[in-house]
Design brief:
about 450 residues, binds calcium ion, Immunoglobulin-like, 6-stranded mixed beta sheet, 8 helices
Length: about 450
């Protein structure tokens, strides 16, 4: 406006320009200040230092045939009931300590459950042990590889042998979101995209074939199908007996002293497919790929279960919502919940970053702050399809309520001042009294 020059005399004009500059600077600062979490991608969604929590989150639900008599058990079943042999020669007698077994580093050794004369009842032996699943987190070239290994005392399928190792592998991306799943069968495996997998929340459902313990994505009779590294099928998996992840013991595999044992986990037999298998570290598929450290593109190169099974079926992404309890005082627990988070499926994981260095998992949790300050709370949620969302909340933590102070409305600071005032008054009274007495004496 041309008139403004005349309305504002020189001193006012300087003040106006200064105000305009301050306003413009403030607007600029507000504009560049972080606004929401747009574009900010979580580097690692799941707690990276807690492999136990990670494998628990994705641990499978097992569905067995009603005619199955053997369940996955700890390898102690072999350590306590099998002798170690080489070429029929007895090397070690049961029980064998795990750390000793781990020192036998040749494929010539094998564990052999002894027949004491009346035949071996594998069912009776194995029933003495709790259902157990071994799990492992492997930082892999293509993401995070989670593996669930199952050990059975006997394989009672088309081929029969002592000892039976099976594996279910879950591939997560670097942010912890599940992508692909591979179920092992007869020296090969078949793959599905996570979103096409039958699950209970974040727990994949595995249909375990009767006798062979091969793992399938669906129940029923599985027909023979030739694949590049072997074959799948020739199995029956009725899936009528459910063993949920809460029904078995999950044991971290990497800590096991017996892992290094390079021999066979069952009696050796010259006939093909009739010997015990090598342990998890030494298992290879029909193409020669190590199952322990698979080559790049191992999942991508596996045959899909069905035509649709690699096309991601994307549901609605969740919308993260934070609700917190009152009041917000230093040292007092505050309840944080993400229960209002919206999704078309199920929220399987929620992670809170409280802005004071504390990060915890859980849909609902309590947290208290040690100091009064402003904090930014970040909530990350993941649904059962592996979709994620993030939200944030700024929170001011104040001093605890005065009500906690026994003197009612007088707070600790006021109390100090009152004490100072009373002391000063008392000193004054003493001084005054002394002066009066001295005056009286004179
Ligand atoms: Ca098997
Ligand atoms: Ca969803």
């Amino acid at each position: 406006m041309a008139g403004s020059r005349f309305i504002f005399a020189t001193p006012y004009r300087h003040a106006t320009l200064l105000m305009a500059f301050i306003m413009a600077s403030l607007s600029f600062l507000l504009a560049i200040a972080p606004n929401g979490e747009a574009g900010e991608e979580s580097q690692f969604l799941l707690l990276p230092n807690d492999p136990e929590a990670l494998v628990e989150l994705f641990s499978p639900v097992l569905r067995f045939s009603s005619r199955e008599v053997l369940y996955p058990v700890p390898v102690d079943v072999m350590l306590e009931n099998a002798n170690l042999r080489r070429d029929g020669e007895l090397i070690l007698e049961a029980p064998i300590p795990a750390s000793i077994l781990g020192t036998y580093r040749s494929t010539e050794f094998y564990l052999d459950v002894e027949d004491t004369g009346s035949g071996i009842s594998y069912g009776a032996i194995t029933s003495q042990y709790p259902v157990t699943v071994y799990a492992r987190v492997n930082a892999w070239s293509e993401g995070i590889l989670l593996q669930f290994w199952f050990f059975y005392i006997y394989n009672d399928g088309l081929n029969k042998h002592e000892g039976d190792w099976e594996v279910v592998s879950v591939l997560l991306d670097l942010a912890g979101r599940p992508k692909l799943v591979a179920y092992s069968q007869h020296y090969t495996a078949i793959v599905r995209h996570w979103t096409n997998l039958e699950r209970i929340g974040s727990h994949p459902i595995v249909y375990v074939a009767r006798g062979s313990h091969a793992s399938y994505f669906s129940a029923g009779e599985h027909m023979l199908r030739l694949t590049p590294c072997g074959f799948t099928g020739l199995d029956s998996a009725s899936g009528t007996v459910t063993v949920g992840n809460e029904d078995y013991t999950l044991v971290l595999l990497d800590e096991q002293a017996w892992l290094a044992f390079e021999g066979l986990w069952g009696e050796a037999n010259p006939l093909p497919g009739m010997s015990g298998p090598p342990g998890p570290m030494y298992r290879r598929d029909g193409c020669g790929s190590s199952l322990w450290t698979p080559p790049p593109r191992w999942f991508e190169d596996l045959p899909p279960d069905e035509d649709f099974s690699l096309i991601p079926r994307r549901g609605m992404a969740p919308s993260a919502q934070i609700q917190i309890s009152e009041p917000h005082h230093r040292g007092e627990p505050i309840n944080f919940d993400a229960l209002g988070t919206e999704d078309d499926g199920e929220i399987v994981y929620a992670e809170w970053d409280f802005g004071d260095g504390t990060v915890v998992a859980g849909l609902e949790t309590n947290h208290s702050y040690a100091v009064t300050s402003n904090f930014t709370i970040r909530l990350t949620v993941m649904d059962d399809d592996g979709n994620t969302d993030r939200t944030r909340l700024d929170l001011e933590i104040g001093e605890p309520d005065d009500g906690d102070w026994p003197l009612g409305v007088i707070g600790p600071e006021q109390f100090v001042w009152i004490a100072v005032a009373i002391t000063a008054g008392a000193l004054f009274l003493i001084a005054y009294t002394v002066k009066r007495r001295r005056m009286k004496r004179h």
